[in-house]
Design goal:
elongated; 78 residues
Length: 78
Amino acid sequence: MKAETHPDYHTIKVQMTDGSEFVTRSTWGKDGDTIHLDIDSKSHPAWTGGQQQLLDRGGRLSRFQKKFSGFIKEGAKK
């Protein structure tokens, strides 16, 4: 194998949206850095059952809703 072909893995701290933290190995950042998540399994509707709303960043969510507002009929069965 060639030398210097593998990425530099080091430990980082991941901070979830509720403030809890865990340590993992990653190629992101430098050793000991902390990454703050905007969306994770504790806040994303796919894991929470849709109880929380996503933040609209730059109007993307509102543009999507406007574009596809009439796509599904209101009384349609799921």
